[in-house]
Amino acid sequence: MNKHLLNLFLYSIIVVLPTLGGSYIFSQIEKEQNHLEQVQHAEWVASIHKSHWDQFISETVTSLRTLSLTSEIYVNSPDKMAPLLRKAFQTDPRYSGLFLLNEEGRLIVGSNNLLDDNLYKHSYIQEVIRTKDIIISADVNTLKNNQKVIGLASPVLDEHDHLTFITLALLRVDHLQNIMKILTPDTPIVILNQKDQVIIDFDSEQLFKQGGHWVSTPMNQLPWMIKVKVDEEAARSNIPFLVGTITVFFILTHIIFLLVKYILLKRQSIKERKQNEAQKLELVGTLAAGTAHEIRNPLTGIKGLVQLLSEKHKEEEDQFYFSVINDEIKRINQIVSEFLILGKPTAMKNEPIDIRMIIYELKPLISSEANLYNIMCQYTFPEEPVIVLCTKDQMKQVILNLTRNAFESMPTGGTLEISISKEGRKCVLTVLDSGVGIGKEELEKIFHPFYTSKASGTGLGLVICKRIVQSFHGDIQISSMENKGTTVDVIFPLYKE
User: In a 3-state reduction of DSSP, which class is residue 469?
Assistant: First the structure.
């Protein structure tokens, strides 16, 4: 996958898909919330009208009971009820008429003449005669003047609980509709009877037939149901909210995308730096393999000729010059040897070795050199063997190189601690000194070939150590603080038989 396709893939995974998915999820949540709010609003509207109807019917029942008590006074001359009915009718606009019926449901007297002679045939009048209870008509009736009404009939009983009269109130549907429209002018409402037939529609019957979501609330005083339509348009997703959500997700995902790109670029930079270091080591190794032997051959000749000349010229001044030449030849040989190790660190055969034994063998050399620097050495080893797969001579070279660096960092004396520990399946060799330490900038460069802070160093010592340790499938880590000391951890996998 090339870089362009990788960027496109990351952008799709981190920005595009989360933005679309998150925006969709939040829009659905917001839509559900809006829908719930509209349902709650519809339930609130239904409760208002339910309370209004219950109050209205209760007041009407109370009025009819009052008329019933009055009609008992005129039981022998019911015609005298006519003025009272007309007066009650004129003072309350909710009525289309108030009437007094006999025990058979036939009209005796009323506030007007809008009733037909077949009133006794209505089911709710027959229900009053049968049950002797207050009954309201299940349907809307139409009077002679085409006015739609709802009938509410109340029985008048004598002292023996016999039906003597029926008081009837005709409630104006248009009056009730106007009140309900004033309360909630923009909300579609219908009222159904017990047969689920629309008896009052408030111009909403067509909407009801079209379906949709309607909230139902039964009335307490009537066998009717109030249905209020949920405003589905308002319940839909809010476009500004959706745009805002997409914008927020777009910004957040871009921030995450930039962070991921930064992390990937940083990792790529570290990887390239390691590759460059490996290429440098490979180049040095190739150079060492091709030239080390060629350098040693003329050096051997030069060394032999210098030795012959030193035997011929015995003067003190000449001997001084010959000793300087021999020292420089030895120095060149040492550098060539380091080149060879750098080029082929795994030339020798690895074998299981107790790393404690290597330290024991090096103790005299380390202690002797420590005495020269006035340094106290401390050793901490586990009691059981610590076996690693390595080459003894190369491991000795690593340890001596690290201790030599530690001694050089403590020119006025100090403490050197060498410890071995087991951490899980790994062995950790720690070399800790109390020297001058290493600065942060220098710490980042100490494993670079030919970098050195010493006046006479080659800059290959730690590079060679790291190369040898890596050939044993290990790692070397250095931490340091200026004027407080340096800690070197050499980590190897423990050998498994």
Answer: helix
**Contact predicate 360/394, CB 8 Å:** no
Q: What gap in Å lies between CA 11 and CA 257, rounded to an integer?
A: 7
Report DSSP state, residue 81: G
* Crossing angle of helices 239-312 and 3-11, rounded to 10°: 140
Spatial contact of 152 and 221, defined as CB atoms under 8 Å apart: no
The pLDDT tens digits for 191-242 are 887 777 777 776 666 777 777 788 888 888 777 888 888 887 766 656 776 7
Side-chain half-sphere exposure of 207, counting CA atoms within 13 A: 17
Rg (CA), the chain: 54
Q: How far apart are CA 152 and CA 133, in angstroms?
A: 11
Displacement of CA 198 from its chain's centroid (Å): 50
Q: Which pair of structure tokens corresponds to residue 41?
A: 């609003």
Residues 78 and 470: their CA atoms lie apart, in Å, by 122
Q: For the whole model, what pTM was predicted? A: 0.49
**17-73 vs 239-312: helix axis angle to the nearest 10?**
150
Q: How far is CA 185 from the centre of its chain?
A: 45
C-alpha 179/C-alpha 181 separation (Å) is: 5
State the Cα–Cα distance between residues 258 and 247, nearest whole angstrom: 16
**Residue 356 identity (one-letter amino acid):** R
Q: How many angstroms separate the CA atoms of 138 and 122, rounded?
A: 10
- Asked if residues 338 and 449 have their Cβ atoms less than 8 Å apart, the reply is no
What 8-state DSSP symbol labels residue 105? S
Which residue, 188, 172, 142, 150, is CA-closest to 49?
Answer: 188
Mean pLDDT over each residue of the chain, to the nearest integer: 81
Higher pLDDT, 347 or 170: 170
What is the phi/psi pair of residue 147, to 5°?
-85, 130
Find where tokens 């006999």 sit. Answer: 102
CA pseudo-torsion sign 420, 421, 422, 427: negative
Q: Is the sign of the CA dihedral 394, 399, 403, 408 positive or negative?
A: positive
Average of pLDDT values for 410-437? 90
Helix axes 82-91, 17-73, angle to 10 degrees: 150
DSSP H stretches of helix in 344-387:
355-372
The rounded distance, in Å, linking the Cα atoms of 366 and 398 is: 13
Residue 311 CA: distances (Å) to CA of 115, 303, 307, 319, 322: 157, 13, 6, 9, 10
Cβ atoms of 97 and 115 within 8 Å: the answer is yes
CB–CB of 99/128 below 8 Å? no
Query: How many distinct helices (H) and strands (E) make up the chain?
Result: 13, 17
Domains and CATH numbers, the chain: 3-233 (3.30.450.20), 263-344 (1.10.287), 349-493 (3.30.565.10)
